[in-house]
């Protein structure tokens, strides 16, 4: 699969852009485990053009995580075009437009998936951005606004016609948010539309190697994007690639490996972020790194309440000592 001139190999795996999750610390770990393409956290076009500190900080990219795309969102074409130019100056391989975020405060302003209620504006905005930057422009979107308006086949054609280089489709409508099951049949319909010639990347509910293999085989997508299933489990990329190569499932990481990984992740996060923000945003990862351990409730509570990094490191070493060998016992 190729996006413009960037060759991503066969059956590439994409890390979905996720707010307060896909920062450089997490991206580096996902890359280590085999993610082929990264995206930044989504960035407000208004924040970029106003030089907002939080938005500008998200433009920090590192060579080891390439190829990488910067994702922007907004509801005004002029602001989005200027934001795309600013994002392009940071040197990504791709500029991605977020037409998929379902969060109320974004969608009801007409940004994110809210743009699906105004397809002419969506197309106009995309056309303007494609013409304004020298980089390939991609789009991430959904099936439609609601059950009665699943118009992704038409939208994909129209966005392709104004020059996007690839499209990622989350298999839910905006009204579904993240509830129910993702509908991959419409993603497959877009991919198998004879008018489509750009790569189609599927997204939604991929949380195992078997599901990834089924999505590629059944729906013919060019790539798969994984989001929530990576949180606290970045090794899912390794597991999927091992399954593709061997037809067998990869063994679970040992407790020692998970502790080492959690320590590395927290260390990198602290290096990147100021104050307690690194610890707040690590909590969802730490909770999931050790999901399934028996009699873990009290220790989990300590992990999720302390704001002292040294105490977290001590808790991690306690986990190493107390539960070392647990995964090996379960698999024997």
Describe the SSE topology.
Elements: E1 2-3, E2 6-7, E3 13-15, H1 24-32, E4 38-39, E5 43-44, H2 45-49, H3 53-57, E6 68-73, H4 77-88, E7 94-99, H5 104-107, H6 119-132, E8 137-142, H7 152-161, E9 166-170, H8 184-191, E10 200-203, H9 209-219, E11 223-226, H10 236-246, H11 255-272, H12 277-289, H13 297-303, H14 309-323, H15 326-331
Parallel strand pairs: 3-11, 4-6, 5-6, 6-7, 7-8, 8-9, 9-10, 10-11
Antiparallel strand pairs: 1-2
Helix pairs in contact: 1-11, 4-6, 7-8, 9-10, 11-12, 11-14
Which key features would you list for this structure?
disordered C terminus, 332 residues, globular, single chain, 2 domains
Description:
The protein has 15 helices and eleven strands. 45% of the residues lie in helices and 13% in strands. The chain has two domains: 2-246, Aldolase class I (TIM Barrel); 255-331. It is α/β, with parallel strands linked by helices. The longest helix is centred in the C-terminal third of the chain and has 18 residues, at 255-272. The strands form two sheets. Strands 3, 4, 5, 6, 7, 8, 9, 10 and 11 form a nine-stranded parallel beta sheet that branches. Helix 1 runs antiparallel to helix 11 and helix 11 (255-272) packs antiparallel against helix 14.
């Amino acid at each position: 699969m190729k996006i413009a001139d960037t060759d991503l190999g066969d059956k590439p795996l994409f890390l979905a852009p996720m707010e307060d999750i896909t920062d450089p610390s997490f991206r580096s770990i996902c890359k280590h485990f085999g993610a082929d393409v990264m995206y930044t956290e989504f960035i407000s076009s208004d924040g970029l053009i106003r030089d907002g500190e939080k938005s500008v900080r998200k433009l920090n990219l590192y060579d080891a995580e390439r190829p990488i795309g910067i994702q922007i969102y907004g509801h005004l074409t002029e602001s989005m075009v200027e934001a795309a130019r600013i994002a392009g100056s940071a040197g990504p391989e791709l500029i991605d437009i977020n037409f998929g975020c379902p969060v109320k405060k974004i969608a009801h302003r007409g940004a994110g998936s809210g743009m699906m209620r105004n397809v002419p504006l969506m197309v106009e905005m995309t056309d303007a951005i494609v013409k304004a930057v020298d980089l390939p422009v991609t789009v991430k979107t959904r099936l439609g606004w609601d059950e009665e308006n699943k118009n992704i086949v038409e939208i994909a054609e129209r966005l392709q016609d104004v020059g996007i280089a690839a499209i990622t489709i989350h298999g839910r409508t905006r009204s579904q948010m993240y509830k129910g099951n993702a509908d991959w049949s419409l993603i497959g319909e877009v991919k198998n539309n004879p008018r489509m010639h750009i790569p189609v990347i599927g997204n939604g509910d991929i949380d195992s190697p078997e599901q990834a293999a089924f999505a590629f085989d059944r729906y013919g997508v060019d790539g798969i994007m994984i989001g929530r299933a990576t949180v606290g489990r970045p090794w899912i990329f390794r597991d999927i690639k091992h399954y593709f190569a061997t037809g067998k499932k990869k063994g679970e990481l040992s407790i020692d490996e998970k502790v080492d990984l959690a320590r590395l992740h927290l260390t990198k996060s602290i290096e990147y972020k100021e104050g307690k923000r690194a610890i707040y945003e690590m909590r969802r990862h730490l909770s999931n790194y050790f999901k399934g351990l028996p009699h873990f409730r009290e220790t989990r509570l300590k992990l999720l309440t302390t704001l002292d990094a040294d105490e977290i490191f001590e808790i991690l070493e306690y986990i190493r000592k107390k539960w070392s060998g647990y995964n090996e016992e379960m698999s024997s």
